[in-house]
Write a structure and sequence with these properties.
alpha/beta, four-stranded parallel sheet, 3 helices
């Protein structure tokens, strides 16, 4: 399917990528996009490793109400809300969202 992709929300662990490795090792051969925000200090490493498969969005804290007054921006809220726009921009109609934190298998 040309209009399906997996979007993996990433942050500060470009060397790990457990979810990506698991998907590929289990036979998934389709499109994968990595979704990062512009505040990630490891963004250059992601760009180096994943090139055009890396999609970067602006983490504008005023765009979405996180319901949090601590100032801690470590939340998937921002990426999850940007993925539908990123999918449309990349001609993706159907998609699945993963996080790079959860697929740690040995």
């Amino acid at each position: 399917m040309d209009n399906f992709a997996v979007f993996i929300m990433v942050w500060a662990r470009p060397e790990k990528m457990w979810t990506y490795k698991t998907l590929r090792s289990q036979g998934y051969t389709g499109k994968v996009f990595f979704v990062a925000d512009d505040k990630d200090e490891t963004l250059p490493k992601y760009k180096e490793k994943y090139g055009d498969d890396l999609l970067v969005f602006s983490k504008d804290v005023n765009k979405y109400d996180a319901g949090d007054n601590t100032g801690d921006l470590r939340s998937t809220l921002y990426a999850v809300n940007e993925i539908p726009r990123l999918a449309k921009e990349n001609d993706i109609k159907y998609f699945f969202i993963f996080c790079d934190d959860y697929a740690r298998f040995s």
